């Protein structure tokens, strides 16, 4: 059940089957550090915190600006209605995708926080996918089997058949768990679209990300002539 809590400066949406009570503290790394609940973090353009909450794991992510603007304005976005904000849109999209049975993480809560007169900040919490490792990290360790590439390809096709455009489809946002199931994560700025050529653009983006990591990393167990056809086999067979 999705609930909403609103005050003068803040709107929080949350799944009340997962969270009993909500407050700003849920989105504060300092609060979780005091609770000794932070199990780790990952850094990239921003820091993502892994929180152990009882027998469940959560991922807390703060939204940051990218590109040149992000160097000046790290995390403020131009004010808009809360329902159209980055975090709440991502939360609502994940709810829809979960309802369709798609392999995406379960959303826990999202926050829209006013910042000054013209801007806002945003945060989201999703559940950790047990035993899942992203394709980038796997390829740093080992070669993926033909079956694994086909499984990943089938998951992407499943997303496209549901008409979901993933704005940042890359090898960091595709995952395999320890049961061999593929997952897709990070749905910031993603949306449901009408059928079109965007699916080809999505696949091209993923291929570019694999090529880029191959060039950049000293050890990266990916070979386009061997692995990409297996991915496409899984993608095409799922249809």
What tags apply to this protein structure?
239 residues; 3-stranded antiparallel beta sheet; 8-stranded antiparallel beta sheet; 2 domains; globular; 26% strand; alpha+beta; Transferase(Phosphotransferase), domain 1; 13 strands
Describe what you observe in this structure:
- The chain is of the alpha+beta class.
- It has two domains: 2-127; 133-238, Orthogonal Bundle (Transferase(Phosphotransferase), domain 1).
- It is built from seven helices and 13 strands.
- The protein has helices at residues 29-34, 67-72, 86-99, 135-141, 146-161, 198-216, 224-238; strands at residues 2-6, 10-15, 38-43, 47-53, 56-62, 77-78, 107-115, 119-127, 133-134, 164-165, 174-176, 182-184, 191-192.
- The strands form three sheets. Strands 1, 2, 3, 4, 5, 6, 7 and 8 form an eight-stranded antiparallel β-sheet that branches. Strands 9-11-12 form a three-stranded antiparallel β-sheet. The protein has a two-stranded antiparallel ribbon with strand order 10-13.
- Helix 5 (146-161) crosses helix 7 (224-238).
- The radius of gyration is 18 Å and the shape is globular.
- The protein starts with a strand and ends with a helix.
- Which percent band covers the strand fraction? 25-35%
Shape: globular
Helix and strand string, N-terminal first?
EEHEEEHEHEEEHHEEEEHH
Strand segment count:
13
Question: End-to-end span in angstroms?
Answer: 32 Å
Global mean pLDDT: 90
The tally of structural domains comes to 2
Low-confidence stretches: none
Biggest sheet statistics: 8 strands, antiparallel
- Approximate helicity band: 25-40%
Number of helices: 7
The computed structural class is alpha+beta
> What is the radius of gyration?
18 Å
């Amino acid at each position: 059940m999705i609930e909403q809590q609103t005050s003068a400066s803040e709107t929080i949406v949350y799944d009340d089957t997962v969270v009993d009570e909500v407050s700003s503290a849920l989105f504060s790394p300092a609060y979780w550090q005091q609770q000794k609940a932070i199990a780790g973090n990952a850094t990239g353009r921003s820091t993502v915190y892994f929180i152990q909450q009882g027998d469940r794991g959560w991922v807390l992510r703060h939204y940051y600006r990218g590109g040149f603007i992000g160097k000046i304005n790290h995390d403020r976005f131009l004010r808009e209605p809360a329902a159209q904000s980055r975090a709440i849109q991502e939360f609502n999209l994940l709810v829809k995708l979960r309802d369709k049975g798609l392999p995406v993480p379960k959303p826990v809560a999202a926050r829209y926080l006013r910042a000054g007169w013209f801007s806002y900040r945003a945060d989201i919490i999703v559940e950790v996918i047990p035993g899942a490792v992203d394709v980038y990290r796997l390829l740093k360790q080992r070669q993926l089997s033909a079956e694994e590439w086909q499984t990943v390809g089938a998951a992407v096709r499943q997303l496209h058949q549901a008409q979901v455009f993933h704005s940042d489809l890359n090898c960091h946002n595709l995952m395999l768990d320890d049961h061999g199931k593929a997952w897709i994560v990070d749905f910031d700025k993603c949306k449901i679209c009408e059928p079109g050529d965007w699916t080809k653009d999505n696949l091209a983006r993923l291929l570019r990300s694999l090529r880029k990591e191959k060039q950049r990393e000293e050890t990266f167990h990916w070979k386009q002539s061997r692995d990409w056809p297996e991915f496409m086999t899984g993608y095409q067979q799922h249809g």
